[in-house]
Amino acid sequence: MAEGTARYAREGGTWFLKLAGDLRHPLAPALNALLDRAFADPDFKQLVVDLSAAENIDSTCLGILARIGNQARGGTPPVIISNNNDINELLLAVCFDRLFTVVGDAGPIGEQLEAVPETPVDKDSMLELVLEAHRRLCEIDKNNNAVFCDVVRALEKEARQDGRV
């Protein structure tokens, strides 16, 4: 599997995020920082996530994507583009159909995609980010809670042992 990559573009109030390859937790800080920028943009209206080139998504990256869906509650749901059956099954399994409009194709996305800048984080910040991502997944649905609650408890225990919680 190819290492995960993230590219983005902004056209007016719409932000486009194209994710490809094996999307794992080391990509989470960069994605989270990009979402901070998008949500702070006074012109922000919508976020479109293209997963058509994604091969795998770990739970931390799913939790970061859940942040997009949570941000839009009550407004226009964000869009996920995915034509990969395995990815679509994963999105349905974590109830993303409640947070996003999932489509198979949306035509070409921004020609001028830029690489999402890497965001170095220390161990403590990464632990907090991973914990928050899993908490978000738990909040979507009781089945998600059952799946991810042990992960959340283990991360909370680690944070307490390190004196962070």
Q: What features would you describe in this structure?
A:
The protein is an alpha/beta fold and 165 residues long. The chain is globular, with a radius of gyration of 15 Å. The chain has one domain: STAS domain (Transcription Regulator spoIIAA, 2-Layer Sandwich). The longest helix is centred in the last third of the chain and has 20 residues. β3, α2 and β4 form a beta-alpha-beta unit. The N and C termini lie far apart (36 Å). The mean pLDDT is 90.
CATH architecture: 2-Layer Sandwich
Question: Taking all residues together, what is the mean pLDDT?
Answer: 90
> Shape from CA axes?
globular
Strand order of the largest sheet: 5-4-3-2-1-6
Using the coordinates shown, work out and report the CATH topology.
Transcription Regulator spoIIAA
Largest sheet: 6 strands, mixed
Structural category is alpha/beta
What's this, in brief?
The protein is built from five helices and six strands; from the N terminus they run E-E-H-E-H-E-H-E-E-H-H.
